[in-house]
Structures are given as structure tokens and as C-alpha cells.
């Protein structure tokens, strides 16, 4: 039930061209940070509103929720050392480049990724940050500060790497921290930034990077810390066949057995990629309620494989979408990810099995479920007013008949308006209060200076 805030501003988003919500052809009313009313065709708001937005040019969908990214990688897109390689050689080529990351470059990379996501219709931005070289110990702090400045909802996971190449891991020694340092900083950022309440603008999760660069102790103790602070757990798992071989060689077990042994088979956990699971593993993950973030663009770029989205969902796992890091995508456009999810999954399951509504559901409700949130991801009374409004004015949409299907099939990639917690953060296709040209110039300059090849 919605608790009304009598003094709050009430906005009627009126008569949209189309809307992804039941019985809402007349639009919706937003009061304060929440949706308070859906209006059927021809209807009027139950109580007077302060403002009306004519949405007759707009297709309205719930704000998209991104459940996997690595913002810092916006600085190494299309990098010659890494292009045209599968995951392990790709990672090894980039680790030595990322070693040079500075706080200023990281701040700009974060701002740029949030902005790209916002412009694509994303209202909750998850990031998996696992790089803490010397000088970048306060990375999580930077990510929360930047999200607050832009007004986007942030889900920052405190990532980690503690096994370097000298211990049988993949990254160089300069990029790893010891387990105790990681755990004490995890506790610090949880205490300062994690807000478990509905409507939270910032949440923290714990995210040891992957089986091939952390210790089992770190996995176990992260799970215990997550219980104490009521937060989520996230890691990469099942991305490539190389990972299967690595786990078998080093631990004598497959990735899901590893996950079970370290105490992660529970609904707090969601996994990035989740591709190479057998039938038994899919059933076990589903029974445990472990979520999976499908990253179609990255999976195609690195040729990692086909996620078993439909089987995982049927088994009980929440399935969400993520753009993944900008060095394996190489953009941060979640609406583009929705289109890629539709196409890639049709290739897997057939044209009748996966629809545009499935792909949109993964990017909204499914992603929200991965993050353990029931206050976002749908347009209905009582949920947060997180919305993405697209127009169909570009040439690519001309002649389209079903507006919601057109968003996905014709390739919408830039929202006209984006609302987060009841406030417009994108208007007329531009982020409110941010100079994108200046951001582009400075970010590009830092990327060239730090990681360029000239
Ligand atoms: Zn990733």
C-alpha cells in the first residue's frame, strides 16, 4: 500500500504513446519519489496534480537496471592490446595497462559510465569494481560521490583480487590486496554507504572478482560479512570453458561446486555471465535462488558462449542484464544490451520463445531481483518513480507499428527523458547539469595519456 505524502509535488505523465505497465494507457502519477497512481485509458488522476507532462510522443518503460559493469574500463575501449582475444589472454593483456589507473582518471571514468547508462535509460547502475592499485584505495567512495552528483541510483560492489600470478592467479602482484585489507575495507564501505532500506539511492555489495583471482578464505569471509550487513554477494562465474579447466586444475572441482563449498549457494548471490553450467548445476542454482546477470554484448565480443537464461529462470534463478565492462562491450548502453539479449537468445532458443517483452523484463524486474530489490523494476503504485521515456522520432523508427516492440527491434539507444526517484535526470536527451563535451574531452585526454599507444 502506498503512503501518501500530502505536501509532495504531484506530476501526471499523461497519455503516453505506449507504456510498459498494466491498465495505464492514461499515464501515471508521480508523487515525491514514488509512483502513486496508474490511470486507465481516458481516466483522470484521483486527486489534483501540480504539473502535467504530455507524453503522447513517449514510450514509457521502467528505468533499466544494470547488474554488471566495470566503469574503469571506459578508459581502455577498443584497446589494440586486447581486441580480438578471448577472456584469459584479453585479461592478461589489460592487467598491465590498468596498473596505471589514477584517482582522477577513475573519477572521470565513473562519471562517464554513469552518464552513458543514464542516457540509455538506465536508472540503477551496478558496478563491480575490483581494481585497487596504490592510491586508489577510496574507489568505492568516489563511485558513491559521483552517483550522488548525477542523481542516479548506485549499486556499487566492493570487488577484490587477492591471488596474483605468483600464487597461481591471473593478475600481476601490483593489482592484488591481501585478504585482511580487503575485508576491513569492505566493512568500512558497508558501514558508511550501504543503505538496505527501500528507496535507497546507494547500496553496497561484496564482490570477490572470480575463482581465478581470489582465495577461498576471502569468498567464505565475504559471505559471512554479507550476512552481518544484510548485503548482496556478486562474482564472475561460468564465463568461459578456460575457467572450468582452471577450477578443475587448481581446486579439483567445477565452478558451481566451488561456489557451494565457499557458502555462496543462496539468494544473496548473483553471478556475472553464468554460461557454462550443466543441467544439474542449473537446477541447483535455481533451487538456491542464485541470480544470474546475462551480459549478451560482452559474451558475443569475447565469444564466451550462450547463457542458459530460459532454463535458469525456469529453475528459479532471477535473470538480469548487464552491459559488462567497457573493454569487452565496448559501450555502456543498456538499451542496446536489451536488443542484443533478444537476438542472442533467439539464436539459442528460437524466434517464438524469446520476445521483446522478455528482454525488457530481464533488464528491469529481473535485474532488480538480482539486486534483491522490490522497490524498483516495475511501473506500479508504491514503487520508486524510476522511468525511461523514449521518442520514436528518428528515421530508424519510421513505419514502426508496435511502439514497445519498436524500441527493441528498431534499436532505441538514447532516452529522451529519464527520471530517478521522481526527479528528471535526463531532459531532451541531455543529462541535467552536466557538460558532456567537457567530460568527453577530459576523459579522452586521460585515457590517451595513461593508456594510449602513441
Ligand atoms: Zn565482468
TrEMBL record:
This is 8-oxoguanine deaminase. Residues 59-424 form the Amidohydrolase-related domain. It holds the Pfam family Amidohydro_1. Keywords: Hydrolase. Gene3D superfamilies: Metal-dependent hydrolases, Urease, subunit C, domain 1. The keyword Hydrolase applies. Belongs to the metallo-dependent hydrolases superfamily. ATZ/TRZ family.
